[in-house]
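Review form for a predicted model. The reviewer records the input and the model, then writes brief findings.
Reviewer: anonymous (R2)
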Amino acid sequence: MARPCLSAALLAACCSLPSFASAQQACSDYGAELATMVSADQALRMRVDFLDQGNPAQVKLAEQIMLVDRTNTERLKALIARCGWPTKAAHGEQAPEDAWLLAQHADRDLAFQKQVLVLIEEAAAASGEGINKSFAYLYDRVAAAEQRPQRYGTQLFSPSGKACDLAFKPLDDRQKVEERRAQLGLPSLEGYLRIVKELQHCNGDPHYPQPIADDEIKRK
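Model under review:
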């Protein structure tokens, strides 16, 4: 099955900074801007072959992902500075999730990721809904970058450098991590590890599983 390709128009849209006529116009288009950036983010990541990352085409793809991530980060920072953190009521049901995903991939700007972590926590408190999976993933991303233990067990690495040899980056307490995951509706650590291995085609079938927009399957 052919993997989705990033159209030239979409790449151009992602790689050119927007020119906003006004703050009002920028904020009214907030949700659409986020959706376009996420489309570019995911279209590229769905083409990653975890079992053949040394292939020249995959190396080139990794460079494109870095470029899109860098551009998306700058666009997201500008939108947040102008409009604040997106809300479902003002910007659409998917807007906060899209903004989180883009921040999750802003690994070259740790200070910004930490800023977003605070914004997500503040939004959770204001809504009365409490923290969710998005907070967990970004918390662990920041913790791992700062070489601190994870609280939710979302970040993996390969001790041997092989795509299917996966282990969890340090956890603060495995039992407590399992409890926190359950509270947020996340699968067990072993279940999560199995999902990631399936995503990376570690069963040897490059067409399974089919890419779907699920919290645990989306290319985080």
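Findings: The beta strands are 156-157, 167-168.
Further findings: The chain has two domains: 23-108, 147-220.
Recommendation: see findings above.
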